[in-house]
Amino acid sequence: METEVREEPWLMCWVTAGQLKVRNAPARDAPELGILHHGDAVRIVAKSGQWYGIEFADQEGFIAARYVALADPNPGRLIPVSGNGSLRPSRQFPETGDATTRKVAGTWNRYGKLLARLSDEYRMDVACVVAVLCVESSGQGFSASNDGRMIIRFENHKFWQFWGAENIAHFQRHYRFNSEKRWTGHQWRDNANGVWRRFHGDQRAEWEVLIHGMTLDREAALKSVSMGAPQIMGFNHRAAGFASAAEMFSAFCEGTDRQIEAMFRFMSAKMLNCLRDDDFSGFAALYNGSGQKTKYGQWIRRHCDRFREIQTAQQ
Asked: Between these two residues, 22 and 83, which has the higher pLDDT value?
C-alpha cells in the first residue's frame, strides 16, 4: 500500500490504549519494534491506510490509527513539541510483573536513551535516576487525562510564602493548609462562599488551582508548583537553569526531554553524591524536604533495586 507523507511537521497523536505495539511495517503481522503506553505523545510522519507512521527510537515505526487520538495544535493545550521517540533506548525491557517492575521498565523504555547519556555525563548509576522519576511522577511528564497538560502539583503553603503572607485575607478566602504539617491539609475554593475541596491527585483540579493563583500573581503561583516528570518546584528555577519560574514552566511544557535535562542541572553536588552512595534518604531530604525523607528514600530504594534486578536479568 502506498504511504502518504504528511506535510504538517507538528502533527502529534496521543496513545489512547493501555499499550500499543509499534511495528516496522503497516501490517498486523509485521515484526514489533517496541511498545507505546497510554498517554504517550508521538509525532506522525506518514499515513498508510489505517496505520500511522511515527518516529520511534530513531527510526520509523507504524501504529494502528484506531488506538490514538490526534492532538490539537492549539498551544493552549500545552502539547509537547516533540514526542518520546528520540528518547527511547534501542534496548527495551519487558513491562511485566508487579507495579514497581512495570513502572521502572516503562520509564526506561520511554526515556532510557537520554537517561543513559546524562547519567554517564554526571557519573551516575542510571538506575538511581530511573527510580527518582518513578517516585516523583510515575515516570510521566504529561497527563493524557488532562488534555496532555504537564503534570503539576500546587503547594498551598508555598503560595502562602510567596504571596499569601502579604495578602492574608484574600489568601484565606481561597486556600487552606495545615499550619503544623504545612505540606498536608491542602484545600481550595474558587468562590469565597463555596465548598472547600481537596485537589491533590486530580490533575484537572491542580490546574484549576494554578490558573486561579496565576490570576492573583503569576510568578508567585508558578513558584508554588512542582513541574513535570522530575517534579521540580518553580522556586528552584535558577538551580534548574532558568531566569524565572515562568521561563521554567514554558520550557517544561515543551517536552519531557527539557524536564529531564533540567533535573540533572538542578541536582546539587550533595544530591548527586547521595545517589552515588545509595543514600536515598539523604537524597530525599535534599530533593523532597526533610519532613518526608524516610518515606521517599524507601520508595526510591525499592525502585532502584528493582531496576537493577531487571538489568541483571536482561544481561
From this structure: 22
